[in-house]
Design goal:
The chain is built from 3 helices and 10 strands. The protein is mainly beta. It is elongated, with a radius of gyration of 25 Å. The protein starts with a helix and ends with a strand.
């Protein structure tokens, strides 16, 4: 149902783009020697919604092969016993799971119908990072504090996740003067997400946390999601062939990481595009 709504949205978007382009004679591009096609790169920052970050917490709520499972593995228990010396137990998992702000890199293709309207398609790649801490309580018999007989140690836990966003839509100008163009962007979105790695470090040793799919340890969580988005941008000419484009995008998309972590949520990105337009050859 969601994919059908996305298809209808995209059809409506491109239909209106064509109508506006045909009717906008008074906004005809002044430089007729320039190609209406442009290609460029996106460099920005991506702010991911934290709804799915809990997957990397190592908690039994999200995987049966998390921190507690690793601590109780018979082949590793002696290693942990030697490190902690005294009786120990997991006291606390990460409380506020969140992603780090990360770089967004991509390519952008555009077609300028007129000074008022443009269509575009772009592909952005994101490598998300997760870094939090879990706490282990150690009961030290030499601790003379009877009210608090435990001492606590925190250990880092990490997650690595890859995503892509494929955006297709239109840019509608609301201010155009000389070499400056401010616009509103509307687009449909197809995205992909994949867990790459989840692990914690204790005594400089990395321990992998597993997230098998249907008990298949060779498969990792991930999937395809859909959504829509909007944004604002400001284009200005740097030279005859180069355009700089400062942009902000707001996404409302499904992040289909697992069967239970696949809700729709808001994500943001902000960045800079560098666009090249090729001159037409005249004979």
């Amino acid at each position: 149902m969601r994919s059908k709504l996305l298809f209808i949205f995209l059809s409506f978007l491109f239909f209106n783009t064509s109508i506006l382009a045909q009717d906008d004679y008074e906004y005809e591009i002044e430089d007729t020697s320039a190609s209406r096609f442009s290609i460029g790169i996106n460099v920005g920052a991506f702010f991911a919604n934290n709804n799915t970050a809990i997957l990397y917490s190592g908690s039994p709520r999200v995987t049966n092969y998390g921190i507690n499972y690793i601590f109780n593995r018979q082949d590793l228990k002696q290693t942990f016993d030697y490190y902690f010396v005294h009786p120990y137990s997991i006291d606390e998992y990460p409380i506020e799971s969140s992603y780090k702000t990360t770089a967004e890199l991509g390519i952008h293709l555009g077609y300028q119908f007129s000074n008022l309207i443009a269509a575009f398609i772009e592909f952005n790649s994101i490598q998300l990072k997760y870094e939090q801490y879990f706490t282990v309580a150690i009961r030290d018999p030499q601790n003379s504090n009877t009210l608090e007989p435990y001492r606590y140690e925190k250990f880092p836990i990490y997650g690595e996740e890859s995503r892509f966003n494929l955006n297709m839509g239109t840019q509608i100008s609301y201010f155009h003067e000389n070499e400056t163009n401010a616009y509103l962007a509307l687009f449909g979105n197809i995205n992909g997400v994949k867990l790459k790695r989840n692990y914690f470090i204790l005594n400089q040793i990395e321990y992998e946390i597993q997230h098998p799919i249907d008990n298949d340890f060779n498969r990792k969580p991930g999937g395809i999601g859909y959504g829509v988005g909007g944004g604002l941008g400001l284009k200005f000419s740097v030279s005859e062939k180069i355009i700089a484009d400062i942009y902000y995008n707001l996404y409302y998309t499904q992040t289909n990481l697992t069967e239970f972590l696949n809700t729709y949520s808001y994500n943001h990105s902000i960045g800079l595009r560098i666009l090249w337009k090729k001159q037409k050859t005249t004979y």
